[in-house]
Amino acid sequence: MDESGLPSGWEVRHSNSKNLPYYFNAAEKISRWEPPAGTDTEKLKRYMALHHSTSASQPGAQKPADKIRAAHLLVKHRDSRRPASWRESEITRTKDEARSIIQGHEARIKRGEISSANWP
Predict the structure, then answer these.
(1) Exposure string (b/e) for 16-44, b if CB count within 10 Å is 16 or more?
(2) C or N terminus of the chain, fewer CB within 10 Å?
(3) How far apart are the first and last CA of the chain?
(4) How far is Cα 18 from Cα 14, in angstroms, rounded to an integer?
């Protein structure tokens, strides 16, 4: 058992999608939200307070202005693997038209007209 209080092979990682810590065992390729069996909870509390409780990891913390985070921006076209969506039953735009739409969104983002907070 190390300073984290976790059993051998386990480590604390941080989920970017949920902004929460989780526990990972690399040897067994297991991840979980709850501490594994055999954890010294008092040691873990101290470890988490020192290493995982900074204001940057708190929900609602401000990110640097020059950083954005996006999973992806998808504009389907008629040659897409599945040229349909919940919005359009048949997509007829060309790949170049789809690319143009994406470039238009990119320009609006760079000008500060839109952000992920007010994405259409």
Answers:
(1) eeeeebebbbeeeeeeeeebeeebeeeeb
(2) C
(3) 49
(4) 9
pLDDT tens digits, one per residue of 49-99: 888 765 444 444 444 555 555 657 889 999 998 888 888 889 999 999 999
Structure tokens at 20: 């929460």
Q: Which CATH number fits domain 10-57: 3.40.50.620, 2.30.30.140, 3.30.420.10, 2.20.70.10?
A: 2.20.70.10
Q: What is the DSSP string of 50-107?
A: HHS-SGGGSTTPPPPTT----S------TTSSS---SS-SS----HHHHHHHHHHHHH
Q: How far apart are CA 120 and CA 44, in angstroms?
A: 42
